[in-house]
């Protein structure tokens, strides 16, 4: 079976599982997921599963990537912040949907590998930074949308501060593998509103800032 056939099968599966956002599905269809997984796992690139990418990190399950992209509701003029570049797959999916995407990764090797993939794919509206994602990127704030691809024990306050009024943040929250929920946060004039979406399993968000705030 070719990768293209596997990809078509995956997109059909995502539709059956309730992903109806055509922009999100089209974004997933454009990105060659096999570029973002280790070569030995290339044949599993279009399985609807998370896969290891080294450094204790994973590339998220396609359903979760599609759902997070859907719930983020990105528009073409928006500035987006991603916390946790990882393989770069989620960033590559989001980049065509927004004006500019800023992504933060704390592991230098993972970040450099992701940057090379962006270059090979000709994606030019992604800006990368090596650092602690829970600090956000204050020099570029406020952001219209923020997505976090690792589980925080709570909503990181610095990220909430950098979310524009009317903006949306989507992130997994929880301290245990089996007690995480995907949360959507809307910033309002006088605070924020949160909505629990569905249970998820993400690697933990490693952050000196969050540890110090405990």
Core attributes:
single chain, 214 residues, alpha/beta, 9 strands
The gist of it:
The protein is of the alpha/beta class and 214 residues long. It contains seven helices and nine strands.
Rg, Å, rounded: 16 Å
Total DSSP E strands: 9
Head-to-tail CA distance between termini: 50 Å
> What structural class do you assign from the helix and strand content?
alpha/beta
Q: Biggest sheet: strands side by side, in what order? A: 5-4-3-6-7-8-9
- Give start-end ranges of low-pLDDT stretches: none
What kind of assembly state do the chains in view correspond to? single chain
Number of domains: 1
Overall mean confidence score, pLDDT: 94
The tally of helices reads 7
CATH architecture level-2 label = 3-Layer(aba) Sandwich
Q: What would you give as the CATH superfamily?
A: Vaccinia Virus protein VP39
Largest sheet: 7 strands, mixed
Helix content: 25-40%
């Amino acid at each position: 079976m070719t990768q293209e056939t596997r990809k078509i099968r995956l997109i059909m599966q995502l539709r059956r599982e309730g992903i109806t956002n055509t922009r999100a599905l089209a974004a997933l269809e454009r990105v060659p997921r096999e570029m973002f997984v280790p070569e030995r796992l290339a044949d599993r690139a279009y399985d609807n599963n998370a896969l290891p990418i080294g450094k204790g990190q994973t590339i998220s399950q396609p359903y979760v990537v599609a759902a997070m992209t859907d719930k983020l509701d990105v528009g073409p003029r928006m500035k987006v912040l991603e916390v946790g570049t990882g393989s770069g797959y989620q960033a590559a999916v989001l980049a065509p949907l927004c004006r500019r995407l800023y992504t933060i990764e704390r592991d230098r090797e993972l970040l450099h590998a992701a940057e090379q993939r962006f270059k090979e794919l000709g994606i030019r509206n992604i800006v990368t930074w090596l650092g602690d994602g829970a600090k956000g990127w204050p020099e570029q704030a406020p952001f219209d949308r923020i997505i976090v691809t690792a589980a925080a024990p709570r909503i990181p306050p610095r990220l909430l501060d950098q979310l524009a009024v009317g903006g949306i943040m989507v992130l997994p929250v929880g301290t245990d593998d089996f007690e995480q929920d995907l949360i959507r946060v809307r910033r309002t004039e006088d605070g924020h509103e949160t909505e629990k979406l569905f249970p998820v399993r993400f690697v933990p968000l490693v952050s000196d800032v969050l540890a110090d705030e405990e």
